[in-house]
Backbone:
C-alpha cells in the first residue's frame, strides 16, 4: 500500500520516533507547525478513527495522553486534533492525531476561529440533529 505513515511504521521511511507501543507510534511531524509538533498514529492502517478497533483506539488515545503531557514541556498547554477525512483537511489518509504545544504567543487562536458562519438553530433543528445522532 502506498501510505507514507505505513512506511514509517515498517521503517522503510525514516522518522523521528518519540514513543512506540505494540499498537501505536508517536513521532515528530516533519513540517512542524511549532517546535514539538508530534503525530500519533495507529500501526494498523485506517483512514478514519471510526474504522479502528476499540483496542487500537484505546492504545492510541493512551499514547496521545502521554504525548500531551510531554509536549507541554515545550509550552503551557497543547492542542490535540484529528482531521478525520479529506474534507476536514486530512492530507495523509492514515489516522493521525496532532499533538501540538500551544501558548498565547503562538497567535493561532482557538479551533473555533476556523468557523466563521455559526448556524442559528431553532429547537426544531436541534431536535432533528439529535434524531440523526442518537
Ligand atoms: P493532515 O493535514 O493530514 O492532518 O496532517 C498530515 C501531517 O503529516 C502534516 O502535519 C505533515 O507535516 C505531516 N507529514 C507529511 N509527510 C510526512 C512525513 O513523511 N514524515 C513526517 N514525520 N510527517 C509528515
Ligand atoms: Zn497507512
Residues:
Amino acid at each position: 500500500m502506498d501510505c507514507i505513515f505505513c512506511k514509517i511504521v515498517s521503517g522503510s521511511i525514516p522518522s523521528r520516533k518519540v514513543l512506540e507501543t505494540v499498537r501505536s507510534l508517536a513521532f515528530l511531524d516533519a513540517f512542524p507547525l511549532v517546535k514539538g509538533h508530534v503525530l500519533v498514529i495507529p500501526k494498523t492502517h485506517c483512514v478514519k478513527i471510526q474504522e479502528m478497533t476499540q483496542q487500537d483506539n484505546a492504545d492510541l488515545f493512551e499514547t496521545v495522553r502521554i504525548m500531551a503531557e510531554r509536549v507541554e514541556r515545550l509550552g503551557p498547554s497543547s492542542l490535540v486534533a484529528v482531521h478525520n477525512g479529506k474534507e476536514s483537511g486530512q492530507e495523509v489518509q492514515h489516522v493521525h492525531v496532532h499533538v501540538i504545544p500551544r501558548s498565547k504567543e503562538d497567535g493561532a487562536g482557538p479551533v473555533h476561529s476556523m468557523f466563521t458562519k455559526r448556524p442559528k438553530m431553532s429547537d426544531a433543528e436541534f431536535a432533528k440533529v439529535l434524531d440523526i445522532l442518537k
Summary: The longest strand covers residues 97-102.
